[in-house]
Amino acid sequence: MFIKFGIDEMLEACDIASRACNKFVTELINHENFNKSTLTESSRMLLSSITRILLLADRIAIKRLVNSIEKVDKRLLELENVKNFTEFVYKFSQFGSDMVELANISGERQNDLKDDLQRAEVCASRSVLEKSTMMLLTTCKVYFFYKIYYLRYLN
Questions:
Q1: Which residues contact 42 (CB under 8 A, 6 or more apart)?
Q2: Predicted TM-score (pTM) above 0.85
C-alpha cells in the first residue's frame, strides 16, 4: 500500500541522482578535459535529486503515520458501539494492535527528530496516548461490570 505511493517519482529521482553521479565521476576521471561548469551542473543535479528523494521518503513516512492514526480513530468509533463485554474484548484487542503499530511508527519518527524540544513533545504525546489507552480499558471494564450488576438489580 505504501510502496505504490510515489514510486514513479522515487524511481525518477534516483535515476537523476545516478546520472548526475556518473557525469560527475566521468568528469573527474578525465583530468585533461576538466570542465568546472559540468561539475557544478552535475553537483546541482545530484543535490536536487537527493533532496527530492528525502522529501518523498518523508511524505511516505507521514502518510504511514496518518493512515495509522485513521485506523486507531476507526477502532475507537467501533469501541463506542459495542453491545456486550465479549464484543468489547475483541474490538479492544484490535484497537490495541493498531495502537502498537501507531506507537512503532511514531517512535520511528521520534528518533528521526534532531530538535530536543520536538523529540520531548513527541515523547510526551506518546506517553499520554499510552496512559489514555490503559484508562480507556479500565473505564470500559468497570462500565460493563457495573452494567451487568445494574441489570441484575433491576430484574
A1: 20, 21, 23, 24, 27
A2: no
